[in-house]
Amino acid sequence: MSNRPIQQAGQHLQRRVSRRRVLEVGSSTAFGVTLTDLLAASACSSSQSQGTRFGQARSVVVIFLWGGPGQQDLWDPKPDAPSAIRSEFQPISTSVPGTQISDQLPKLAQQAERYTIVRSMTHRDFEHGSAAYTALTGYPHPLPGTNTTARPDDFPTYGSLISRLTPTTRPVPDFVVLGPVMHQGARPPLAGQNAGFLGPGFDALRVPDDPGGKSFRVDSVALPEGVAQSRLAGRQSLLSSIDPTERTSRNRHHAGLDDLYARAFGLLGSSETRRAFDLTGESASLRDLYTRTRFGQTLLMARRLVEADIPLITVNWSKLNADQWDTHANNYPRLRKMLPPFDQALATFLEDLDSRGRLDSTLVLCLGEFGRTPVVNKGAGRDHWPDCYSLLMAGGGIAAGRTYGASNRTAEYPIANHVAPWDIAATMFHLKGIDPHSHINNRQGQPLPVSRGEVVSGLL
Fold first, then answer.
1. Summary count for the chain: helices (H), strands (E)
2. 111, 121 contact by CB (below 8 A)
3. CB 322 within 8 A of CB 335
4. pLDDT tens across 323-335, in order?
5. ∠ CA(433), CA(438), CA(441), 5° rounding?
6. With contact defined as beta carbons under 8 Å apart, do 32 and 409 qualify?
7. How do 312-317 and 371-372 pair as beta strands?
């Protein structure tokens, strides 16, 4: 089998500006994207001046905005689009000359020199479940357009792969998910959130509760009442005495449980891990800056987990606040409520990481499973739109203070430097020190590429 990933049929990974796209954009600012913007995006794509950055990210923080935030209402404003399309929000200038974002994100506008916006994300899956799987694994779901639930043969989510390929040697988890498990209605958990064919030994340590709550406690890293440290050591010794041949004779799906047990004993014996999950040592003023919302306090905990050198942390915005990002109706009233705490918390998170000297070694990825339609529907909302959307990346080797790629005048389609979710996956693995073209075996022993995408050199 080739060591190069198989590219999905029909995928157009453009790395230069075609004559057709130049003609589409022209040089008129009335279209919202100038020829200068387009050429700059292309030049950014081919730039190698920042080096490869391989392995620069010690930690990765994936902030997943479940539901799909609208690109035109956050990161890619189109003030000159027709009235039926353009956002009610106005564009504002940022700390990076020439870059504008929504006026609902004033704090992030002041932090623009710390991150890069990708405005040319694209794929073909319109449904939450299968599109979220793609966003969180870097693989298209075999049943696109479905709200499929997790299966044992799923491709592993990012943190599970990192746990398997580059596990930490420290007494901390390899992979933590902060926030609730994602469901679609009353169905079982959606695919893309667990270890899939790697088995449960590589699933995340899940912390579903509100870290700002008065009764918050992570039982997974605390000894049960009445169990002393010496008793824990005795239990570990007893497990180790079981015949290794008997333990390894189990099927491949459960073979990872031995590693899980070993990590569990390490966590329960680690005061360092327990401290990482304790927000009481943070000042009241800093907790206020993060906002006293569930999202804000969850990001504060994520910063603490970064300081504990946990390799991958996922923050799920899934019922974290009153609303989710699936704004089929009442788009603007909902966003006016959601965006201020989102803006304040994320801006504080980036500034806090930077001030502590952690941003350069921490890759931050903020995304949803897709964007929203250009046209506002009859319910004053926007519907699902994977053809073009935006995301934010910062730290860990990502070039800062840029916009990468460009969309057309309605933010409906990319017109420069198309980027697919699997390209973001390849870039993330590269920065984490994992060759995205290496392979991992599934349950049938078949080798699959870690990523089927390509590292986006223009982001480095």
1. 13, 16
2. no
3. no
4. 589 999 999 999 9
5. 120
6. yes
7. unpaired
HEC letters along 32-74? CCCHHHHHHHHHHHHCCCCCCCCCCCCEEEEEEECCCCCHHHC
- Of the candidates 334, 331, 279, which has an alpha carbon nearest to the alpha carbon of residue 302? 279
pLDDT, one tens digit per residue, over 263-289 is 554 554 567 777 888 999 899 999 999
**Tokens 């995304």 sit on residue:** 367
Q: Which tokens in the block code for residue 375?
A: 């046209």
Sign of the Cα torsion 285, 175, 394, 101 reads: negative
Q: What is the pLDDT of residues 26-66, one digit of tens each?
A: 433 444 454 444 444 544 444 443 448 999 999 999 999 99
CA proximity to 305, closest of 180, 170, 115? 170
Q: Give whole-number Cα distances, 32 to 70, 81, 82, in Å.
A: 17, 7, 11
Domains of the chain: 19-212+283-459 (3.40.720.10)
Is the separation of the CB atoms in 338 and 321 below 8 Å?
yes
CA distance 52 to 71: 28
Which DSSP helix (H) or strand (E) runs through 297? helix 294-307
DSSP, res 117: E
204-215 confidence digits (pLDDT tens): 999 988 998 888
Q: How many CB atoms lie within 10 A of CB 52?
A: 13
Percent share of the chain, pLDDT over 70: 76
Could you tell me the end-to-end alpha-carbon distance of the chain, in angstroms, rounded to an integer? 29
Whether residue 210 contacts residue 319, with contact meaning beta carbons closer than 8 Å, is answered with no
Structure token pair of residue 99: 């870059």
The residue among 313, 337, 328, 325 whose CA lies nearest residue 375 is 328
Extract the tokens encoding 172. 């901390």
> Which two tokens mark 34?
């100038």
The values of phi and psi at residue 171, to 5°, are: -80, 55
**DSSP bridge partners of 175:** 312
